[in-house]
């Protein structure tokens, strides 16, 4: 049981390049999230998904796209990277919320992205 | 003003000291999650609680839902406890409301 995994762990891009970050979870969780973490800013939600085939915008969605074609995978895409997207990206997942359970999120190890 | 406030923002302690990190929130939450992040590392779950107290090893978390306040205590602190501690409120939907973190440094 690997939990939440992210690939790659590190990446350096040049301005204008594109890339995709992959998040995978093996816990059969319905909800998945992409966050970015910047110094002094805390964790900010980029996009999230409440189930296979669904995605929604979070607080800071501009410049990113996402897809959830399979329940276990959540992809984050940067179409044209900018230096402002230099950050550490975390993926998380949680089980289906209902009135009797917490929405406990489980985090991946992070991807450190530098855009030059 | 953040909806979830942590204090202090930075904390330096000597090894062996008792440490308290506070988390206050101004919005309704159904539970609170304490997370730990070592420098350059991932985010690890410590506790999730909606009432009372939880203990794991040298770590204790308490919450008072009526007062909208939670505390994380570390007994007999050790340099390996040096990390950023983050509290996050479960808003009762599928989103977290994060504090900005408390950076703890424990000196040997």
Mean pLDDT of chain B: 93
The proportion of residues forming helix of chain A, as a percent range, comes to: under 10%
- Structural class of the helices, strands and pairings of chain B? mainly beta
H and E string of chain A: EEEEEEEEEEE
Straight-line N-to-C gap of chain B? 35 Å
Can you walk through the features of this model?
The complex is a heterodimer of chains A (116) and B (108). With 116 residues, chain A is mainly β. Helix content of chain A is 0%, strand content 50%. Chain A contains no helices and eleven strands. Chain A has strands spanning 4-7, 10-13, 19-25, 31-38, 42-49, 56-57, 64-67, 73-78, 87-94, 106-107, 111-115. In chain A, strands 2, 4, 5, 6, 9, 10 and 11 form a seven-stranded mixed β-sheet that branches. A four-stranded antiparallel β-sheet of chain A has the order 1-3-8-7, with no helix packed on it. In chain A, β4 and β5 (42-49) form a beta hairpin. The termini of chain A are far apart. Chain B is mostly beta strands. Helices cover 0% and strands 59% of the residues of chain B. In chain B, the strands form two sheets. In chain B, strands 2, 4, 5, 9, 10 and 11 form a six-stranded mixed β-sheet that branches. A five-stranded antiparallel β-sheet of chain B has the order 1-3-8-7-6, with no helix packed on it. In chain B, a hairpin with a 4-residue loop joins β7 and β8 (69-74). Chain B is globular, with a radius of gyration of 13 Å. Chains A and B meet through β5 and β10 of A and β4, β5 and β9 of B.
């Amino acid at each position: 049981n690997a939990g939440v995994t992210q690939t790659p762990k590190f990446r350096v891009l040049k301005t204008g390049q594109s890339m995709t970050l992959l998040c995978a979870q093996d816990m059969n969780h319905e909800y998945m999230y992409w966050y970015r973490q910047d110094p002094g800013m805390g964790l900010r939600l980029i996009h999230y998904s409440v189930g296979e085939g669904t995605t929604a915008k979070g607080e800071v969605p501009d410049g990113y796209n996402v897809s959830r074609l399979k329940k276990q995978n959540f992809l984050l895409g940067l179409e044209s990277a900018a230096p402002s997207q230099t950050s550490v990206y975390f993926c998380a997942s949680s089980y289906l919320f209902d009135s009797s359970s917490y929405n406990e999120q489980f985090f991946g190890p992070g991807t450190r992205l530098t855009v030059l | 003003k953040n909806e979830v406030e942590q204090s202090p923002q930075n904390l330096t302690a000597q090894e062996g000291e008792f440490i308290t990190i506070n988390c206050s929130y101004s919005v309704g939450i159904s539970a609170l999650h304490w997370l730990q992040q070592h420098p350059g590392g991932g985010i690890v779950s410590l506790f999730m609680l909606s009432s009372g107290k939880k203990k794991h090893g040298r770590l204790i978390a308490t919450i008072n839902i009526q007062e909208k306040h939670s505390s994380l205590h570390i007994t007999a602190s050790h340099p390996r406890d040096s990390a950023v501690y983050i509290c996050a409120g479960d808003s009762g939907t599928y989103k977290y409301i994060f504090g900005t973190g408390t950076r703890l440094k424990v000196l040997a």
